[in-house]
Amino acid sequence: MKTLNLDLGEKSYPIYIGQNLLNQKELLTNHISGKQVMIVTNTTVAPLYLAKVKTLLSSFTVAEVILPDGEAYKTLDTLNTIFTALLEVRFDRSSMLIALGGGVIGDMTGFAAASYQRGVDFIQIPTTLLSQVDSSVGGKTGVNHALGKNMIGSFYQPKCVVIDVNTLDTLDNQQYSAGLAEVIKYGLLGNADFLTYLQNKVDGLMARDKGLIIEAVYQSCFDKADIVAQDELEAGKRALLNLGHTFGHAIENTLGYGVYLHGEAISVGMLMAAKLSALEGFITDKEVQQVEYLLQKVNLPITISSKIDYQDFMAAMSVDKKAIDGEIRLVLMKKIGQAFISNDYQQHNLEQTIKDFL
Amino acid sequence: MKTLNLDLGEKSYPIYIGQNLLNQKELLTNHISGKQVMIVTNTTVAPLYLAKVKTLLSSFTVAEVILPDGEAYKTLDTLNTIFTALLEVRFDRSSMLIALGGGVIGDMTGFAAASYQRGVDFIQIPTTLLSQVDSSVGGKTGVNHALGKNMIGSFYQPKCVVIDVNTLDTLDNQQYSAGLAEVIKYGLLGNADFLTYLQNKVDGLMARDKGLIIEAVYQSCFDKADIVAQDELEAGKRALLNLGHTFGHAIENTLGYGVYLHGEAISVGMLMAAKLSALEGFITDKEVQQVEYLLQKVNLPITISSKIDYQDFMAAMSVDKKAIDGEIRLVLMKKIGQAFISNDYQQHNLEQTIKDFL
């Protein structure tokens, strides 16, 4: 097992990464100070891992809430289902929430923990590659609004993150590839060596070699923890983690949530960011092609599947959380492995990039 | 104008108290760093003060959302109305929310600010006595759940609080009395001198003498700010501010929100806390009668208007946020002007107190 510490002062917490971690109850119980534990999971994950996690918690009062699976359910209404479950069993401010599932479960459980009785503890047990390398680490929690993704939420840190890569055994290939999109992102935005590593090991990763997966998850979490520790509330550097996300969110928002998996939308979004970076003269067309090649190699989309109206796409981009007073800020690449935040790009280059993809 | 500072390190903020403050635009504008301002108010307050506040903000992009009035609308659904309004005008993370209204508006606007794009700034302009002396100060924000009051929310501090006591000119007598319940609370829980002052000045306060009102609001905010500065997240001392509230919330919850105003329920709740304190031998029956006399003198209820089932009442008390692992903690009075938190009372004394009132 590898342990990473996300350094946030009093809010610091460990991230445990390895195989068979769902057999080690102290990874959870060492972080639970009260007696009441609510496991939040979904209809897909519950049959696979709920019983296993419950056996680790035999000394606590354990309740569970099983939500429908999917980004479409990442709403205030579903959040209220969690509150109702907590209140029906009269759980109080000393209770602990455990998020058992992918990013949607993690984001909603985290926001529920942030908001239930103005804040209770929670633990992340991410069971998808995407959530293991991204959403479970760093404390971004929340739900979607009909008019925008992740528009409602909070920065709220878990007590620990338990990443058992064996849970990926039950993850289908499409979901696995979607997770690799965020892994590749860390290489593109700040770690050229890691990107080279991924390019070299891509066949092994696609064959799901456990050693390679642990290494990729560890390096991704390491890079993310490093950035989050410097800028928890996204006042500056943390926004780099949104490479591909302003484009990607606009794709998800205009196509409708669920047409693309989040990682798939981010794949196209990263390629759009790369193409705009090339139009702006920062990287070469050949480097864009290398990005495109790697994304294709891990079975990620590099085009938008349906026609989207340009104005709709721009409108969706302008509500992105990185916008300031209406201006769209984008994460671009100065070179491969070095991203930066820009509001200084040529508008016609942005327009050309978008139109090339629509 | 009197200015109080609530000392919370980086989150510190001023509380301005006086007459005609809604004519002084810099009290607001000095605290607004972006360009977009959303005023959140309700159908009762909007015709009275919305235009006035908007004239102060002529240099900003101003939008408004006018909610239905009443505790019954303090819900996640209404909160979503605020998010929709913000997203429809594409307000971003640099936007400012202004709560213009009573406690319900303040609590919801604060929670909306805490949660919109994971946190934007907000300002409190409380227009009821209750919100001026209680909910606008200290950063408790949130909404109710069908199964419990204020069960969903966050600790989130405003940038400033602007208390123009002239807004009380449009407050009806019932609402004014409800506000005095919280004023009296500060005397009972920690300031015997202030309680004596209120007993001496009660006729002037009921005649709405502006000088007395400013003094009473200032002292209430002073006492609250002092406690909040010591314990922002209610890990200890802050719970003293809930004197009468565990009983009061159970009254509101079992009767149904809206039967009693919050301050009215707290009036009965404080009297219940006083009676239990007497049964426990801390204060005398005569002192209980003095509390009862003062509450009656300001036209507050001292009994519960409808029959409530004992088991229902106990169940409502046990979901109170001060409960820990299911145990009900209560704020009792060691003596008049000195409250403390107890889980060490005789169960039969609690039972007798409740049954005396049901």
UniProtKB/TrEMBL annotation, chains A, B:
Keywords: Amino-acid biosynthesis, Aromatic amino acid biosynthesis, Cobalt, Cytoplasm, Lyase, Metal-binding, NAD, Nucleotide-binding, Zinc
Cofactor: NAD(+); Co(2+); Zn(2+)
Domain 3-dehydroquinate synthase C-terminal residue range list: 179-323
An example Gene Ontology molecular-function term: nucleotide binding
Binding residue positions for Zn(2+): E182, H245, H262
Record's catalysed reaction(s): 7-phospho-2-dehydro-3-deoxy-D-arabino-heptonate = 3-dehydroquinate + phosphate
GO cellular component, one term: cytoplasm
Binding site for NAD(+): 69-74, 103-107, 127-128, 140, 149, 167-170
Function: Catalyzes the conversion of 3-deoxy-D-arabino-heptulosonate 7-phosphate (DAHP) to dehydroquinate (DHQ).
Family: Belongs to the sugar phosphate cyclases superfamily. Dehydroquinate synthase family.
Name of this protein: 3-dehydroquinate synthase
